[in-house]
């Protein structure tokens, strides 16, 4: 069962609205750089990152009774050859991590954790029109453990997300304790100031 913020539940149930639901892609390459795309007619700024408007399609999840890993087909436009160099450089894109997030254009500051899915690229085909990624369940051995890194002066939380919960008038954050204090929000700082050099560390 997915638990969505109240604003998103209300927006989902409206008969008429000015907001649109947009699919976002985070394509993480082996060198940890990320390509961000939005299935939209204009760029989308979400979580402090800009997602470039780009054509792509996602098929319905495929499953069967033979015990095979469920898969999803993701087709990204290849007319401009934007992804082709990465496919050729990195072994046909096998092993890329792709996260799909559904967001609403009217509530981009909400927490969309429940509307995210992460897949690994199992195979890839490309032609003059499309790059088709065959997506499967992510390998648990590739997940970060522990989930959060303990960094002294860098916040782990998404700006204005659920953990940060900042609702003031400032629009940017440097994710440092100093900047968090400037926001009057240091009680929710997601770093570990006790790990800074010169302090006592207890494990």
Helix-strand blueprint:
Elements: H1 6-13, E1 21-28, E2 34-38, E3 44-46, E4 49-53, E5 56-58, E6 71-77, H2 84-89, E7 97-104, E8 116-126, E9 130-136, H3 177-182
Parallel strand pairs: 2-4
Antiparallel strand pairs: 1-2, 1-7, 3-4, 5-6, 6-9, 7-8, 8-9
Verbal overview:
The protein has 203 residues and is mainly beta. It folds into 2 domains: 6-142, Pnp Oxidase, Chain A (Roll), CATH 2.30.110; 144-203, no CATH class. Helices cover 10% and strands 28% of the residues. The chain has helices spanning 6-13, 84-89, 177-182, and strands spanning 21-28, 34-38, 44-46, 49-53, 56-58, 71-77, 97-104, 116-126, 130-136. It has a 9-stranded mixed β-sheet, with no helix packed on it. It is globular. The two termini are 35 Å apart.
Give a short overview:
This protein is mostly beta strands and 203 residues long.
Q: How far is the first residue's CA from the last residue's CA?
A: 35 Å
Tally the helices: 3
Q: Approximately how much helix is present in the residues? A: under 10%
As a whole number of angstroms, the C-alpha radius of gyration is 19 Å
Spatial shape: globular
CATH architecture of the largest domain: Roll
Total domain units: 2
Q: What fold name stands as the CATH topology of the largest domain?
A: Pnp Oxidase, Chain A
* Helix-and-strand structural type: mainly beta
Strand order of the largest sheet: 3-4-2-1-7-8-9-6-5
Instruction: Please count the beta strands (DSSP E, at least 2 residues each).
Output: 9
Order of helices and strands: HEEEEEEHEEEH
**Overall pLDDT:** 84
